[in-house]
Amino acid sequence: METSEFSFRGHDIRSIAGSKFYVGTWGSLGSREKAVLREVDFSYVDCGDVVFSAFHPLGGLGIDLPRHAQFRDCWFVEANLRGATFKGALMEWTQEPPEETGHWEEMQEREPVWAQEYYSPFHLADLAGTSFEDVAFRNADFRDAESLDKCKFAGATGLEDCMFDSEEDKERVLRLAREPAG
Q1: What's the rounded Cα separation, in Å, for the pair 40 and 28?
Q2: What sign for the dihedral angle of Cα 73, 47, 149, 66?
Q3: Cα–Cα distance measured from residue 180 to residue 125, given in angstroms and rounded to the nearest whole number
Q4: pLDDT tens-digit profile of 77-106?
Q5: 27 vs 137, which has greater pLDDT?
Q6: How many angstroms separate the CA atoms of 107 and 114, rounded?
Q7: What is the pLDDT of residue 57?
Q8: 115 in Cβ contact with 103 (< 8 Å)
Q9: Which H, E and C letters describe the chain, residue by residue?
């Protein structure tokens, strides 16, 4: 399956809960042999228990081989990702996230207001129970994601360069990534 430049919400699709993109097979002629999604917007969609990727079948060989599940420049703003699985996928964004998500704007005779200029790919997404085990990340931004502390990151790579709300969050995720995947 290869899809690009698609918005679920833009097509009035509010839920894909329980769907399967890549179930971990390879070498067959089925549509689920791989999943390559580019610029797919899952924002505001119920993606609960979706299997984006079940695992990386060639991951145990100890060499860097292409991932059968690839998610490039995908967005999950305010999506429900509770229980979703991205095991063994490649998740990358072309652009590095900006250092700041906005700025304080001075208002005449009022308190300054925050002007948001950038929303992270996981902005206000519910990540409780989401598995990012063995995922290869590049330019990921987890700022403003909800329930990041309830995700699985065992074996994930590329997290050193990802953006987080705090150094504590980053250290916790890096610690989880050093654990063996289950």
Answers
A1: 25
A2: negative
A3: 26
A4: 999 999 999 999 999 999 999 998 888 888
A5: 137
A6: 10
A7: 62
A8: yes
A9: CEEEEEECHHHCCCECCCCECCCCCCCCCCCCCCEEEEEEECCCCECCCCEEECCCCCHHHCCCCCCCEEEECCECCCCECCCCEECCCEEECCCCCCCCCEEEEEECCEEEEEEECCCCCCCCCECCCCECCCCEEECCECCCCECHHHCECCCCECHHHCECCCHHHHHHHHHHHCCCCC
Say if residues 38 and 75 touch (Cβ distance below 8 Å).
Answer: no
Rounded to 5 degrees, φ, ψ at 59 are -65, -30
Total residue length of the chain = 182
DSSP state of 54: S
Q: Given this model, what pLDDT does residue 160 score?
A: 95
Cα–Cα distance, 154 to 131 (Å, whole number): 9
What distance in Å separates the CA atoms of residue 91 and residue 146, rounded to the nearest whole number?
18
Quote the CA–CA distance of 41 and 47 in Å, as a whole number.
12
- The pLDDT score that the predictor gives to residue 119 is 93
Structural tokens at position 121: 């790919």
What whole-number distance in Å separates Cα of residue 152 and Cα of residue 129? 7
